[in-house]
Specification:
five-stranded mixed beta sheet; 5 strands; 7 helices; alpha/beta
Length: 178
């Protein structure tokens, strides 16, 4: 039986990151992106909305893909201080869950002001920089680092760390539900 991993997104930056990490962790696995609701606003504000969105996406992805053993949710948000935050949730068909956080970095003040008033980060970044669909490519992190660190790369670290209990269940014997 194939090892199927469902990712709660069809965004190429997220699915590419998941495929990169999962194919290394589980050679021969199949990674499938699926469009599922996050259950939070389009632009999550704060760690609570961001982590809830990641969990909801992971659970919905697992439920949406027949035979999936793992569901992954990747959710980016902005905290009240104007930092970009990103969260990854991984859930297992058996009930084990893990949640990890990625990088946290300050966004430009003019961008933050608009996002905290309700605009979605990628739309603001596209308008400010003259780009289109940046969230499917470099993302804010790639734009602000001049390509030194892309959105897909940003997701790889927290994805790898979120897999720890699934790679070493003997070290994480109890179901983890942060």
């Amino acid at each position: 039986m194939s090892f199927i991993i469902a990712v709660g997104s069809t965004n190429p930056a997220k699915t590419t990151a998941a495929k990169t990490i999962c194919e290394r962790a589980f050679p021969g696995c199949t990674v499938t992106g699926v469009d599922v609701p996050s259950g939070v606003p389009e632009q999550p504000i704060g760690p609570d909305q961001t982590s809830t969105g990641a969990r909801n996406r992971a659970r919905a992805a697992l439920a949406a893909v027949p035979g999936a053993r793992l569901g992954m949710g990747l959710e980016g948000g902005v905290d009240a201080e104007g930092n970009l935050i990103n969260c990854v949730a991984v859930v297992e068909a058996g009930g084990r869950e893990n949640l990890t956080w990625g990088v946290r970095f300050p966004l430009p003040p003019a961008v933050v002001a608009r996002v905290l008033k309700g605009e979605e980060l990628s739309r603001v970044m596209d308008e400010v920089t003259g780009r289109t669909e940046s969230k499917k490519q470099q993302g804010a992190v790639g734009i602000l680092t001049n390509g030194l660190f892309t959105r897909a790369e940003m997701w790889q670290g927290p994805l790898a760390c979120a897999l720890m209990p699934f790679l070493h269940p003997e070290l994480y014997p109890a179901p983890i539900t942060p």
